[in-house]
Amino acid sequence: MSQYLQTAQQEFDQVFEHFAKDLKNLRTNRASAGLVEDLRVQAYDSNMDLKSVASITTPDARTIQIEPWDKNLVKEIEKAIMGSGLGVNPKIAGTVIHINLPPMTEENRKELVKVIGQKAEQTRIGIRNIREDTRSKVMQEEKAKVISEDERFSLLEQLDKSVAKENERIQALADEKEKDVMSI
Questions:
Q1: CATH class of segment(s) 3-24+105-182
Q2: I need a labelling partner for 42 at 20 to 30 A (CA). Which of 75, 119, 132, 183 fits?
């Protein structure tokens, strides 16, 4: 495999991982630790991920339970949750924080499906941009007589196949998330 295709594949993987992380942070009908684990909490004079300072569990389908390892961080975690834009109010019971997720309405679900579609399209745009950068590098190599015309055709064909595979991965993940969101 050419160095161009290897580099492009690594960039494709990075874009896809970012997309997967974005989708993981979207709320579905069930409580998920992924909804809050990447929230930034002010702890020990720095910003840390919530998963780095507390255990996060889901005792039932509508509740997220957060238990900080350092009991002094309860207020900071509460502040991070309130400022997260999740639209939930944490309840503190001693040193344990509970987040009860209200049931999603049909309107909320449809909005989330739109957001998923937008994120998928942004990811496809990222993939296309990487493809165009790689195509231009291959064309420059051919103009500089580093590779032959046949090699260029072969590389561009392999690149297009890789892009098609990535688009299928993106669509499959988006469809799976939409199914999760729309299930009651």
A1: mainly alpha
A2: 119
Please give the structure tokens belonging to residue 106. 């049909």
Cα angle 59, 60, 66; round to 5: 40
What are the start and end residues of each CATH 1.10.132.20 domain in the chain? 3-24+105-182
What are the start-end ranges of the E strands in 95-176?
A: 96-100
Q: What is the DSSP string of 2-38?
A: -HHHHHHHHHHHHHHHHHHHHHHTS--SS--GGGTTT
The alpha carbon of residue 38 and the mean position of all alpha carbons in its chain are separated, in whole angstroms, by 11
* Fold entry, domain 33-100: Gyrase A; domain 2 (3.30.1360)
Which pLDDT tens digit goes with each residue over 100-130? 887 778 887 888 889 899 999 999 999 999 9
Q: What angle do CA 58, 61, 62 make, to 5 degrees?
A: 90
